[in-house]
Automatic annotation (TrEMBL), chain A:
Residues 76-348 form the AP-5 complex subunit zeta-1 N-terminal TPR domain. One of its GO terms (cellular component) is AP-5 adaptor complex. Residues 395-512 form the AP-5 complex subunit zeta-1 ARM repeats domain. Residues 524-873 form the AP-5 complex subunit zeta-1 C-terminal TPR domain. This is Adaptor related protein complex 5 subunit zeta 1. The gene is AP5Z1. PANTHER family: AP-5 COMPLEX SUBUNIT ZETA-1.
Amino acid sequence: MTTPAPRAAREQPPGRVLVPDLLCDPSRRAEPLCSSRRVPADPARRTGRPWGTAFAAYRGGAGARRARDGHGGPGMFTAAAESFLRQAREIQQEELRRFAARVSALLQGPEPGPEAVDGLQRLHLTVAATKYPRKLDGEFVELLQTVLCSPKSPEQIQVLCAAILREMSPCNDLILSCDEIQDTKLLSLVSSVLLAQGNKGEVAAVGQRVVKALERRLPEGQSARFLLPVLANVLRLSPGSLTEEQIDVVSKKLADWLRYASIQQGMAQPSGGFFSSPRTKQPAPITEVDGAVATDFFTVLSVAQHYTQDQWLNVQTFSMLRNWLLCYGGKELNTLNPGARAGVDGSETPPVCAAGRAGRPLPPRERLRDKAFEYCQRLIEQSSRRPLKKDDGDLQKACLIEAVTIMDIICKQDSFYVCRAVSCLKVLHSRICGDGTYARALLPIAQFFLNHSKLAAVDSDAIYKHLFTDIPAQLFHNPSLAFEFVQFCKDNTQLFTDSSSIFRQSFPNLFKFLAWNSPPLISEFVDLLPFLLDPDTTIEIFHLLLDLPCLTAALDIQLRAAALPASEKAGADPAGKPATCLEAFRHPLYKSLFQYLLRTKAAPEDAPESLVPLRQLLGSLAGSPRVVQCAETVPVLLELFFRVVAEFADGSLINQLVVLLLQRSDQLYEIPAFKEDVYRVLGSQLATLCGLRPALLVELSTEILEFSGAVSNIQSKEAIFTHLAWAVGEFLSVSHDKRCTVEQITRFFEPLEAVLFEITQLRPQASTPSCAPRAISVLMATLTKLAARSQDLIPRVSMFLSKMRTFVQSPAVTSVYSDEDLEEILIRATELMNLLKMPSVAQFVLTPPVASTQFQREVNDSLPLALRMVTQLLEPAPGSMPV
Amino acid sequence: MVRAVVLLAPGGPAPCRVLYARSFGTPPGTGTGTGTATAGPRQRLCRKEQLLAVARQVASQCQLLQSSLGRPSSPQLPQLPDEPMSLQDAPGGLFQMPPGDPFPERVTVVWLSVLALTFALVCEPQENLSLAEITLRRLAPRLLLSLRLLGPGADVLLRPDAADGLLDRLLPHGQMLFLNERFLQAVDRELGIKASR
């Protein structure tokens, strides 16, 4: 923030003497925003305005130069804006009141000019800059409304009055009404204030007034062009504002504007200049976007030098058509002429493709549908033309999407159109499916076929297959498509219930969208993931989630490889080892691994032995911001994954997952923070799975003992190790599983004892890094629990625990662990030892009730209380307990 | 339909600032009870908070995208463009806000970042997002020009009439328009903008 220089005389506008501002708080360095004294008259000369000296210096030549040199620019801009915002927020009520009084005087003056504009602009900022209410005098608010509605007021002032009134809304002192306003532009402006009030009555009144204006012939010089958007907004805010008759009247108008706009170009406004002569020649016909003379009716894709009012209305009608049809398109059967025609409102009557309609006049809403359908067909035809202007190409695509969507709506409301639409869209699909720039239009086409192909008895599998196989694989990097594609999946989750379907099979492709665009898509995938999971996909999705950042890296390589010139695509020497990731992409050593990771559909049986070489290869990309962002989404999805899987998984699936979990903990993409996060989730989920199915401890004892018997796992994967050790102590009990014999318990006891021995009795001599105190604590507790269930082990544990005092006192240990940690370890050891002195109590305390359903229990959360109780029983002497 | 337009300075290390915001109508009977003395201010507060929530989310999406493109999170001071700039490659995106947070209904936000500023449209969920992107790409340079956004002053805060004038033509009452290039030129003629893009 720049410190504003004191106001300099040279900054003042010439010939203007500034009254020193008495209201200005001297501690506030910049000039007040709303000075009730003097407001410079000429907004064009703001360089010299007496407020905001902070930014005044940066205006004009010097300021522009500075910005250009990189010394000013947005930094300064922000400083100036920042200072203004602060001033606006700090203005006191009294100051504001006086300022409003001054603006009021200006507004009531003979000709409110730039000074009034300036005042209103500052007033707007003062009101808008704070979220708390600003109190303006009732009289002043009334004046704003009077000025707004007065035909004599300059347009800029009217716009500002409306802006202030909208900003203050909802407004108690509103006397505004649109009933008497004839000018359509003003009516639109006043409506913007009324619609901001959040009042149903006001919305309905605006709707009534606009419809009334549209019904009648508008006075000369007035255009309905300003009214249609108001109507569209009324529709959005409160669709019930129109009566059935009004809906019919407007439908009729809309149909005419849509279908019968002039096909001649409009005339230029005569400039009245010296050389301009009144044009006498015939207006030219409209053209298509490619320059050809139009052969059919006018649409938004018709081109002219100048447009007529009815052509403007055509644009606006088409722009609001979709919402109008959604709101009012399909209701007439409920009100008028029941049974007038079959097939309306999605009734099950099969469409008659060949037959046309009888030549009777259609009711307004049906007629609108009819015209709308023709319009959409024409747009689809027009979208095949090559535009002269590049931006019109984008508009063509947006029109195509709109046209297909509207056709879908029309067919839902009247199945009569289904056959025509199907043949039209089949042709369209084959025309655009090979062109990636049209990919977004494939989504509404697929949606159409999902909605109607059954009724039309057409096979549309090829359309879905192309959409789900080719599009994500080729266009995962298009963020808009990615968002809309995932949205499409979310809107059609019923598709994912059939596991054999192309939709369900395509999940590896869908994850590419997430891998590349994780920030905007993570919340969408949180919604989508549960629909992708079932017993058949669980394992593959588990791998996919853990490999998601690796997938991002592989996609990066894929993109770069595709961008290589053809000459370099041949690849390196297949005999040698590839030097870069890019070379490896086509190298026989890695090709199949890349192909598997980048597969387009589920392929559980094709999984390679291991993706380890690929993960190592892609290690160089682990620091790329996109990869890191993707890695950050994995823990969230993993937790959700386990939550969902727990609901349907049977014993064998859970066992499979646990084995995989232990295996994969060694095989993660090398991003330290990612690994740490994943271990944390996997650890807690492992404990949960053991709680869900304690039998897995016995069934998977080989794998579990292999993992928990390795000291290195405590150091590298502490979270998983600790949770697993805790789960063994908690759930390896005959009360959970009859197979937990004394032999089984001893089988688990011995490796864990060996590990604890190694880290507490051997390590102090070696200068190895410490293990987490939590792991030591949990191991002691687990051994104690097992001993309580197999009492022959009690002497071994007791002796072990008694040695902990020597452990915590050894110099090698005290140099590595903190005092608090050592004290906690010692206290825990003492407590457990005390507990084991009363074996029957120990057994009772340390065996949790079987019925416990609280799986998410924190490690040892039930223990401390029991332990302390027992310790108190055994050592009642004061001071023996930690306070 | 578009519910609201927000223009913000995403800030980078500094908190994001809403520089201009315009809601197109307030849906009747949302949240606050009507009739009580505090209902009005509460409704307004709610509207302001909603747009602020949009701005914060846009700012964070914008920063994440910039960083994934390997660009610094707080954009360097830009050169004032001497030539008409192309917004085709300007970073932008789409995201959804779930029902109830911050709007009662689901909304889709479309945003576009130009130099140190970000423009956002809050759209109804089923809106034509291709059209929303086109609309945004057309609005942004015109707002830059008429609010003198690249200049060092604070006109953006003090010229709501200029912004409203633009929106009344390009996004009247939140209605997005299918305007081809020639229509757009006609709009520019009405606005007195010469060959800007």
